[in-house]
Write a structure and sequence with these properties.
Elements lengths: L24 E7 L3 H10 L7 E7 L6 H5 L7 E5 L5 H11 L5 E6 L9 H12 L3 E5 L3 E3 L7 E3 L5 E3 L2 E2 L4 E4 H6 L17 H11 L3 E5 L19 H10 L1 H21 L3 H11 L9
Helix pairs in contact: 7-8
Length: 289
Amino acid sequence: MNRIAKNKFPFSGKIEYEYNYKPKTTFIINYFTSIDTLIKTIKNIRCLGDDIEIIIINDKFGENTDILMKVLTHRNDRMLITRDLGERRGYHQGALLSNASDYLIFCQDDDLAPNNNKWYTESINEFEKDNNLGLIGLLKGGINYAQKDNKTFTDEYEKIYVSWLATGPLIIRKDVYFNVGGWSEEYSYIGEADGGADADLTTKVVLSGKKSMLLRTNSVKEWIRRFQRNDGITNENIKLLKKTTNWGKMSDNRILLNNQIYYDKYKNNWENILNIIKEQNKLFTDINI
């Protein structure tokens, strides 16, 4: 722990040593809709200990600040107030504020963290075993994003190296994040990490010479995707809205646009990316790509 006096001459007359200036990991959570799930996640990740820093990006211009401040009670908790900044840009602002020495975790507010540290310990162990591992995703990932032969993996393998990952959450070495330039600016629309930007971040890590892993152990699967929103919209509602409303058409158009952005950006690297992933996965005898 890098605990030093926060203020050498405090007005209170009490020198305090409780601020951790170099926590191992910064947990960056975008808040826009799901206040109840967010609060549960904050409480659950307390079991990770004092080497975790929490930064909440409140992208609703401070809405529910009073509620959030009741759970953001540790010295290394912070909240950034923004207004429709968007998830991707919010994540990057959190990364810029991070004091972490090693890792950044990007998380959405409707994804519920387990109330144990097993998923975190297993993830960090993977990084510590392989200095060339740059990024881990805990939801889904695959190969050849935005192409007709795109492959998507969820529970087929416990571990697999991939060329794209989806947010939910993502864990990245802090130095790798800044070395590859962080979240790219090309991708449009607010929400879902601006769909395609998470795949883009993964591919940049791979092309930088690092590995990106989809990790799906039993403890990782305890993360609950889209646990609860506070607007009454369920996963089934979202599917229906996409099929029947203008919002759904806009969402589909946004996905098509971002897929095209990704495709155009990496169209000259397809064979190289595929060969890199094939070579990396030779370490796993049960994977044949």
